[in-house]
# Entry
Amino acid sequence: MEGTDEQVSFGIDDLPVRDELRGKSPYGAPQLDVPVRLNTNENPYPLPEPLVERIAERVREAARGLNRYPDRDAVELRTELAKYLTRTGGHPVGVDNVWAANGSNEVIQQLLQTFGGPGRTAIGFEPSYSMHALIARSTGTGWISGPRGEDFTIDLAAAEKAIAEHRPDVVFVTTPNNPTGNAVPRETVLALYEAAQAARPSMVIVDEAYVEFSHGASLLPLLDGRPNLVVSRTMSKAFGAAGLRLGYLAAHPAVVDAVQLVRLPYHLSAITQATALAALEHTDTLLGYVEQLKSERDRLVAELRATGYEVTASDANFIQFGRFEDSHTAWQRILDRGVLVRDNGVPGWLRVTAGTPEENDAFLDAVRELKKEQEQSG
Ligand SMILES: *Cc1c(COP(=O)(O)O)cnc(C)c1O
# Structure
């Protein structure tokens, strides 16, 4: 539709939007059409054909009941997620401990609507997952940017000091961390939990979006005796189902009761529930891809180091590498060679997602050429 002059000259700033949204930009990893896309930590493997068939079957069944609202409590799905967590997480989890929503971003939004909000604050240790701060803002929760060390680990003393000083209502710990890739040691998370309880007490949200790719174990066992701890998970990464939009959490049943105060009724469509259930039937196949990706990740780390790049130790399906005098120019040079990586705004560093062996080879060729170019000009 052609805009009239009036429509063209009228923008967001002319609308009575909330003050804290003024001048801000929406989340926006570029979705560019280039041959090799390694910028959003997706799983590069399409779902296997038998799973595609099973999804079609379960969705067909669900379609017959679409005249009705879906199961509001998603009991069957939460039961299967609980079984998956129990089997892989080293800790018994029941349906009452699990809640699911449209992506873990929605899980986090519901948590902040429940435990954050106007007059309250949340802290994260940055650089970390940018959506934590963005969702804090959109829920009216004050955001505190906590410190991280030079090597991107959480400096426990500095973090404890920040918690004691700001007394946040919500503490985010992303492990493995995005965009840096490193996992947070169990003892650090425990100490942060203690600090957060001493300060307020507050909720501690452990974002384990990438835990299936980790060398170490899930922190699910920490839920034992810690009702203010939440572990959030997603099917977007390890399950290779970013397009499905299914995230979930494990916590004390009281937390599951609490988030139901803010969730929209029937928030998880019958189609989403059916699709996620089909994917969970194929967990073993999907986790097989995770093993391949882990070995590709380790190969990328070794090759990047051999080429002369610095790499942050990675427990995820992506790698932070550098250093660059100007990471945005380096990002563009790599893109010029047909490979899209991510500039997360961490000065000197870029992030690449582990793709298929062919995609990774294309990426390695591009960064080797870039290194040569830089050595010649330097
Ligand atoms: C990708 C990612 C998520 C996943 O978000 P979804 O909404 O489930 O797709 C959550 N946390 C972190 C740290 C991530 O990188």
